[in-house]
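TASK: fixed-backbone design
INPUT:
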């Protein structure tokens, strides 16, 4: 059933106030059919909402917010090396990682403690500590809200890349992801080479770590580094690390040899945090919003602010970084502005 005039401040990790004209949870094609054909919302914009941890709600929303309710973690196939599981969009991502490491499966441990729901994971191909969703993803199921037809895309059709996928493109704007299918290994190689991971395991005197121990170590690192949205509104990293051509990178590195960078195929990924910090933004507050004191990539909402203030702050940072380094920073969260 559609609720009218709802404030979704508690449903976004920035804790930004946002009144929406309609809000509903749907877990079946019949319920979607009803919601999408409700006369009050014909020709009104729609927003699909998961856990709200990657959104900047910059204005009130005059349309219909749809929160998927497909749930469950189901083993659909298994063999001697692996299991294939199908997960409903409304399952919290970290619950899935916990389920996976508790069952001694390999593949999701480095993605521990990423907030949000499984349905949103393919959107930006969530990634952390040297791993990405696409490493384990076999397929994504979705419903096209315009036709209400169900589809399944194989992983290679999802066009996964660094913080991107087909689901971020224009034709997919009306696709509601209902489930993801992943393949997890019964045994595998752990990725421990990301800075800080082995050090944390050493500190905990773990010599031959299990996936559960890696997930626990990464959770501790994250708790130490990132503010908890329940205490301080944020959406994790606000800007993507810019990926630029080798030539541009070489010119920049000749001037700033200390700029952290990583090769990606024939391009180079730069540390957005470093660029922002050099412009003096780390720890700076602008009224009700600011840049976190320990992490230049994390924009925070101290309370009683609004999305326009965050947008203004983000714009100021983008302008400074562009003026100084000639680099365009792109926001990672989806900005909702109608
Ligand atoms: C403290 C913190 C740390 C974070 N760390 C990381 C990290 O390490 N790596 C990382 O990649 N991200 C990180 N994030 C960002 C965020 O957690 C992920 O992007 C997450 O996948 C968002 O999930 P969500 O359910 O909250 O999505 P939402 O914020 O609800 O939605 C995000 C986007 O996905 C769309 N969407 C959501 N669900 C669906 C669906 N079922 N079908 C179609 N579209 C949908 C929305 O319309 C929106 O465009 C972090 C965020 C926070 C707050």
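OUTPUT:
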């Amino acid at each position: 059933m559609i609720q009218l005039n709802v404030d979704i401040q508690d449903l976004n990790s920035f804790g930004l106030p946002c009144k929406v004209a309609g809000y509903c949870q749907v877990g079946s094609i019949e319920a979607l059919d009803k919601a999408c054909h409700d006369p009050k919302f014909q020709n009104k914009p729609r927003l699909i909402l998961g856990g709200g941890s990657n959104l900047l709600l910059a204005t009130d929303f005059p349309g219909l917010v749809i929160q998927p309710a497909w749930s469950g973690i189901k083993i659909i196939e298994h063999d001697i090396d692996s299991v294939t599981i199908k997960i409903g969009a409304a399952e919290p991502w970290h619950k899935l990682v916990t389920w996976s490491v508790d069952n001694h499966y390999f593949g999701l441990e480095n993605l521990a403690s990423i907030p949000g729901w499984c349905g949103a994971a393919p959107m930006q191909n969530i990634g952390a500590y040297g791993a990405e969703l696409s490493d384990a993803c076999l397929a994504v199921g979705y419903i096209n809200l315009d036709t209400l037809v169900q589809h399944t895309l194989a992983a290679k059709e999802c066009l996964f890349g660094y913080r991107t996928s087909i689901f971020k493109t224009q034709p997919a704007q009306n696709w509601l992801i209902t489930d993801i299918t992943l393949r997890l290994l019964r045994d595998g190689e752990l990725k421990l080479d990301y800075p800080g991971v082995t050090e944390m395991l050493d500190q905990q005197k773990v010599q031959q770590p299990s996936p559960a121990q890696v997930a626990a170590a990464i959770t501790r690192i994250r708790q130490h580094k990132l503010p908890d949205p329940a205490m301080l509104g944020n959406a994790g990293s606000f800007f993507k690390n810019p990926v630029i051509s080798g030539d541009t990178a070489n010119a920049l590195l000749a001037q700033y040899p200390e700029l952290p960078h990583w090769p990606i195929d024939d391009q180079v990924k730069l540390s957005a945090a470093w660029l922002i910090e050099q412009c003096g933004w780390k720890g700076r507050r602008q009224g009700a919003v600011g840049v976190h004191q320990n992490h230049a990539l994390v924009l925070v909402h101290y309370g009683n602010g609004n999305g326009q203030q965050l947008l203004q702050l983000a714009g100021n940072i983008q302008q400074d970084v562009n003026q100084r380094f000639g680099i365009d920073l792109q926001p990672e969260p989806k900005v909702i502005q109608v």
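COMMENT: Helices lie at 29-36, 93-102, 197-203, 211-225, 246-255, 272-278, 307-325.
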